[in-house]
Amino acid sequence: MIVNVHAGHNPAGMTASGAVGLIDESTENRKVKEEVIRQLRILGYTVYDCTVDNGTSQSDVLKKITAKCNAHQADLDVSIHFNSAADDKDGDGKTTGTEVYVYSETSGAKTYADRVCREIAALGFKNRGVKYSTGLYVLRHTKAPAMLIECCFVDDRDDVQLYDYRKMAGAIVRGIAGKSAEVSEEEKTDEMPSAGGGEKGTLYRVQAGAYSVKENAEAMRKRLEEAGFDAIIIRE
Ligand SMILES: [Zn+2]
Asked: How far is the CA of 7 from the centre of ligand 1 (A)?
């Protein structure tokens, strides 16, 4: 599966950058998209980053993003945004939450959008659900089915306190892939020392024995050497 991912808006501090609240949309959506791309690639997806950092205006950013998206034969376009106008900078103990836009109810992205909403909600954010919009430029002009994710609100203290870019990205990836790229700590330990999964840097050790008494280890080495094999003892 081929996925286009982009962060909406120009970078922070530029013209046509995103919403600013307790956190900054253009900064956070770039962190989230980097992590989404990283995790999708771990899962074997082909991913293109269609983020634009040099738009001359809001419409220019959107035009350039769409051109990048449409340059690839993708199965899904993913636009990452953060919402604003919750106006809850002090925090009222409730998140304003997450919502995902698709073009219409029959969009090929609808299933993914539903799942992304559910996965982000599972992190503790209010699920505002999937919404339809024929007016959003990226949804209107991309060739592949597209979804625009409003992760959470930049101006709601409760959202911001709960928000963590890695977890947000993990939820989006689970929504797209139906599974997680994150490896639990336990699994990581099991994989040692061959972490890297068959790639460069992996060691395949052939073991002939393991002994708690040094003499027994030396006896095994002697037998191996006599049989014509080079052998070394590793103390662990
Ligand atoms: Zn936005």
From this structure: 8
Q: Where are the domains of the chain?
A: 2-177
The model carries a pTM of: 0.78
Distance 207 CA to ligand 1 centre (A): 56
Identify the residue whose tokens are 């962060």: 7
> How many angstroms separate the alpha carbon of residue 147 from the centre of ligand 1?
13
Could you tell me the distance, in angstroms and rounded to a whole number, from the CA of residue 20 to the centre of ligand 1? 10
- CA dist., res. 35 & res. 94, Å (int): 26
Q: What angle do CA 141, 142, 147 make, to 5 degrees?
A: 110
pLDDT of residue 200: 57
Ligand 1 centroid – CA 9 distance (Å)? 6
What is the C-alpha separation between 6 and 30, in angstroms, rounded?
8
Amino acid at 46: T
pLDDT at 80: 98
Residue 172 to residue 174: CA distance in whole angstroms = 5
Q: Give, rounded to a whole angstrom, the gap between the first and last alpha carbons of the chain.
A: 43
pLDDT score, position 116: 98
pLDDT under 70 in the chain at which residues? 183-205
**For residue 32, which amino acid is it?**
V
Cα 230 to middle of ligand 1, angstroms:
63
Residue partners of 215: CB distance under 8 A and separation at least 6: none
Q: Separation of 200 CA from ligand 1 center, angstroms?
A: 39
Q: Does domain 2-177 have CATH number 3.40.630.40?
A: yes
| Dist. CA 227 → ligand 1 center (Å) | 69
